[in-house]
Amino acid sequence: MPILESNSYEFISRSPEQTRRVGMRLGAELKSGDIICLEGDLGAGKTTLVQGLASGWGSTDPISSPTYVLVNQYRRIDDERFAHLDAYRLQNAMDADALDLEELIANGPLVVEWAPRIIEVLPEENLNIKMTWVEEEHRQMYFKANGDYYQKLLEDFKKSMLGGS
């Protein structure tokens, strides 16, 4: 019996640079409407991963945590937007709903840090990434696809990670 479910993938990053590169690989696969849900404690590497996701997706904007502004949007040359939502300071899921999530999702990928805080208002189909601090610079990343589309996205991502293409 496999240790990991078929809709999951586990990776140990050995440095912030490696975490960023993992994000770049996944970011290259993202399309408009994709939803990435991040969970993990402070210092788990979520923002570092998002830096890679946005870069791999094609944005050259500087990436920072939107903890105080709640949502940052990054652009690429075709004017699509990559939305980065930080739910840490939201009181409840209804606060997130007031941010017009549908519009954010319609204009590009949406990445949500602290996603469990607002999971009730997010689409059930998504790619969830749980990040865990292992030691000084090592982070465990557990990817779980929720839905057929995200299963395919995860498979393509795994091929890019393992095959180097």
Describe this entry's structure for a reader.
By secondary structure, the chain is of the alpha/beta class. The protein has one domain: 3-Layer(aba) Sandwich (Rossmann fold), CATH 3.40.50. Helices cover 31% and strands 27% of the residues. It has five helices and seven strands; from the N terminus they run E-H-E-H-E-E-H-H-E-E-E-H. It has helices spanning 16-27, 46-57, 93-97, 101-106, 148-163, and strands at residues 8-13, 35-39, 71-75, 81-86, 110-113, 126-135, 138-146. A seven-stranded mixed β-sheet has the order 1-7-6-2-5-4-3. It is globular and about 40 Å long. The model has no long low-confidence stretch (mean pLDDT 89).
- Highest CATH level, the class: Alpha Beta
- Radius of gyration, whole Å: 15 Å
CATH domain fold name = Rossmann fold
Number of helices: 5
**What is the terminal-to-terminal distance?**
29 Å
CATH architecture heading: 3-Layer(aba) Sandwich
Percentage of residues in strands: 25-35%
How many structural domains? 1
Strand line-up of the largest beta sheet:
1-7-6-2-5-4-3
Question: Tell me, what's the shape?
Answer: globular
Specify the structural class: alpha/beta
Name the helix and strand elements from N-terminus to C-terminus, one letter apiece. Answer: EHEHEEHHEEEH
Mean pLDDT, rounded to whole units?
Answer: 89
Show unreliable segments.
none
Number of strands: 7
Q: Sheet bearing the most strands, described?
A: 7 strands, mixed
CATH homologous superfamily, by name? P-loop containing nucleotide triphosphate hydrolases
Helical amount = 25-40%
